[in-house]
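Can't paste images in this forum, so I'm doing it all in text. The chain is below; anyone willing to post the predicted structure tokens underneath?
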Amino acid sequence: MKKIYIIGPVGSGKTYFSERLAEKLNIKKYELDKVSWDDDNGNVKRSPEEVKKIFDKILKNKSWIIEDVGRDKFRQGREEANVIYYLKLSKLKSYYRVTKRWIKQRLGLERYNYPPNFEQLLYYHSTVRSFYKKEKALLKSLEEYKDKVVFLNKREINNILKEN
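Text version of the structure:
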């Protein structure tokens, strides 16, 4: 029974890490953006009741990998997780990665959930800003889980993915 919660800023590699880890461990992964937003109906924000219902259903599974930026409304997932991976990335590197992602999406070299227009680039940058504004509070909230929080950089992520 593995329950893994992955936290990091936009562009930190949460999706990459969660997809590879899910394959390696044969566990279903969930992006909490897709819980909060209904992509099937034009990227509409779900009601708090819908989000809670979907999230509670995910938590009932015996094993899961969840990825998120650490939103408080998903705190229950952190409580139930066996391990919380916090992906460390500098603010500058995060801006670089989201800009690079946007360029690749504009060129058709990378898939995307949202049209890669200029507004999307501005949105990416605002989410980076927002994450780092709230990072101290997020880190403080993780102190209660200090026995299961593991901070990872890129090298450490790759080492976990290479382990047997």
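The chain has a mean pLDDT of 93. The CA atoms of residues 35 and 156 lie 28 Å apart.
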